[in-house]
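Exercise 7. Given the encoded structure of a 272-residue chain, write a plausible sequence.
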């Protein structure tokens, strides 16, 4: 039986926080590739520069209230803004509930997921993932591995740091090998260094086991999506598909059950 405290704590609270964080992520997605500050100035219209007051800047809701047009000058607002906010809100509720027993891990994974959302949409727009995000994830991943060794199921800070470092080297190294091999075989850039740095950061935070899962899962999803895309739109030579979003999706699946699934699969393989 759900009482109102349960509803507020596990649904309403993460939903509102997530929607507001999503609103901030939109700012990050728009400003980081332009090299602008994500803090100042406050929200303003990208078309006419007018400041946007907070009551016209409500996550998800404002887009529908204003019917997708800016209140100042009537310029169309991309539905993607509302989508990013709704996605962030949904993932915040999901992760918050999934890691309800370990709030510290929940918060870390939520910040990580927020970074993945920003990386995904910047990669879709520009085919790059900024160093601020990827190298930031590497540094934060190592620091958190030492500060919160529970991330790796370790008991001491040194053991946590060691596993974080192992994950970082594993993630960066394996994908770098794939990238170099791809360049050798296809004679063109199959994978950017941004993807390599991103997976290194994922490995630092999530451990080396996650690296194997993320590579396998992102390749699988990427292939299925790529083939589907070609069936619908026809084959085009030199079609550029960013890989970052698939890495992000796979990392999210790892957080939401992939790690347990992988542990069971490994136990099955080794007959234990
Ligand atoms: Zn305007």
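Solution.
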């Amino acid at each position: 039986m759900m009482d109102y405290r349960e509803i507020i704590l596990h649904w309403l609270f993460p939903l509102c926080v997530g929607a507001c964080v999503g609103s901030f992520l939109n700012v990050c997605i728009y400003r980081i590739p332009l090299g602008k500050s994500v803090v100042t100035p406050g929200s303003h219209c990208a078309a006419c520069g007018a400041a946007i007051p907070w009551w016209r800047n409500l996550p998800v809701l404002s887009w529908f209230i204003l019917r997708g047009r800016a209140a100042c000058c009537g310029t169309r607002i991309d539905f993607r803004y509302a989508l990013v906010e709704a996605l962030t809100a949904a993932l915040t509720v999901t992760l918050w509930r999934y890691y309800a027993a370990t709030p510290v891990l929940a918060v870390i994974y939520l910040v990580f997921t927020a970074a993945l959302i920003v990386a995904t949409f910047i990669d879709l727009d520009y085919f790059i993932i900024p160093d601020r995000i990827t190298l930031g994830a590497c540094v934060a991943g190592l620091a958190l591995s030492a500060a919160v060794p529970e991330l790796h199921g370790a008991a001491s800070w040194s053991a946590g740091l060691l596993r974080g470092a192992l994950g970082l080297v594993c993630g960066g190294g394996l994908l770098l090998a794939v990238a170099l091999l791809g360049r050798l075989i296809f004679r063109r850039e199959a994978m950017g260094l941004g993807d390599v740095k991103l997976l290194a950061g994922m490995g630092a935070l999530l451990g080396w086991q996650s690296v194997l899962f993320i590579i396998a899962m992102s390749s699988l999803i990427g292939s299925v999506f790529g083939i589907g895309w070609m069936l619908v739109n026809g084959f085009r030579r030199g079609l550029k598909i960013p890989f970052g979003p698939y890495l992000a999706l796979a990392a999210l699946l790892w957080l939401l059950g992939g790690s347990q699934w992988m542990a069971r699969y490994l136990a099955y393989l080794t007959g234990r």
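Remark. The pocket of zinc ion is lined by residues 45, 47-48, 50, 70, 72-73, 75 (CB under 6 Å). Students should compare their own answers with the one above.
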